[in-house]
Automatic annotation (TrEMBL):
Residues 43-211 form the Aminoglycoside phosphotransferase domain. The keyword Transmembrane does not apply. Signal peptide: none annotated. This is Aminoglycoside phosphotransferase (APT) family kinase protein. It comes from Nonomuraea soli. InterPro entries: Aminoglycoside_PTrfase, Kinase-like_dom_sf. It comes from the Bacteria. GO terms for molecular function: kinase activity. Keywords: Kinase, Transferase.
Amino acid sequence: MKEIIEVVVAHQQRATLRVGDVFLKIDTDQARIDVEVEAMAMVPVPTPEVLWRQPPVLAIAAVRGTALGRLGEPSTSSPAAWAAAGAAVRMLHDAPLPPWPGRSLDDIVSELDEECGLLVTSGILPADLVTRNRQVAEAALRPWTPAFIHGDLQICHVFLEGDKVTGVIDWSEASRGDALYDLATLTLGQEEHLADLVAGYGSDVDLDVIRGWWSIRSLLAIRWLVEHGYDPFLPGCEVDVLKARM
């Protein structure tokens, strides 16, 4: 039986295809691929095996298990699975910092303010929703002690078998950054699982900062998603995350 080609994601910046148990990541930004390969070699958590690399293509093996969940869908993973994910994230954050920097606080504030204005002037979101979430975002916009962060730790990027983490994928945004940003990204739209994640993470977490990052990530993503054919207005997705802060 012939293998079929599955388009996992495709837009002008990059594309990911799956053929059987092999993922082909096509990205013309070689710096981004460099980061992904180097980060996977450094981190103390399970990552996909790199099979080969021929720019602009990176071939990696599929990891075992199933994703912790999907944005917009209730996660059926157990509290123990969420705690295991939290423990894995803590191992990452305790690792030595990568040699490359992350985004500065000033850069994030500048981009956020610009994006909030565009969301309103374009009519994508009502002004009161944007204004309220920009206020919520302030809690996260403070100095932080840099940690080794994944940078795009979506719920679908963490795989488990039972209650054991078998792989964390998509490391192209790895950098130095705020540890709570990873926790917020992983629980975006999954607020009911935050306590289990934090229990595995093993330290006190400022919930106002987590909520601030939920607002920031959603505000920064919505216009891009709309322009690239995705729907952030689906139940449980980014727009609902913003509405929950009203």
